[in-house]
Amino acid sequence: MPGQPAFPPPIAVQRASRSLGEHFKTRRKLLNLTERQVAERAGVDRKTVSRIETDTATTSVGALLRVARALGMLDAIVDAVDPHDTEIGRLRASEQLPERVRPRTLAGSRQRVTDDG
Questions:
Q1: Is 17 a domain residue?
Q2: Helix 35-42 and helix 46-54: axis angle, to 10°?
Q3: pTM (2 decimals)?
Q4: How many domains does the chain have?
Q5: Which three-class secondary structure state does DSSP give residue 44?
Q6: pLDDT tens digits for 43-94?
Q7: Rama region for 43: left / alpha / beta (φ>0; ψ in -120 to 50; rest)
Q8: Residue 101 forms part of a structural domain
Q9: What count of Cα atoms within 13 Å lies in the side-chain half-sphere of residue 15?
Q10: pLDDT tens per residue, range 35-52
């Protein structure tokens, strides 16, 4: 099927997707907004809002962020993924990050070091 991933998302991703959708739905209800009102504010179709609330894994990031903005949640989402707000981010904050990251090699060899060995 076009647009469908080759493999189903991992269980943790499915769980996070459901939680995120539930959070969006709860926020909308707390603001006393209908799906249609949120859709109009976000510039998306009502069905997109419904899909975000029930299955965010099938929704584009752009649509998700538009709805987050309409619900006043955009800044919180952006802040939540700020890499400088992590332990390693704070430790390396003063470093000049490279423009491009290349795979590391073992000293004295041409063998690349990978995460899986």
A1: yes
A2: 110
A3: 0.74
A4: 1
A5: coil
A6: 999 999 999 999 877 889 999 999 999 999 999 999 999 998 889 988 888 8
A7: left
A8: no
A9: 3
A10: 999 999 999 999 999 999
Contact (Cβ atoms closer than 8 angstroms) between residue 27 and residue 64: no
SS (H, E, C) 76-101: HHHHHCCHHHCHHHHHCCCCCCCCCC
Q: Specify the residue for token string 């209908």.
A: 34
Two tokens at 117?
A: 């060995």
Closest C-alpha to 15, from 56, 61, 76 = 56
Q: Domain of 48?
A: 11-84
Residue 69: give its domain's CATH number.
1.10.260.40
**Displacement of CA 28 from its chain's centroid (Å):** 19
DSSP character at residue 10: P
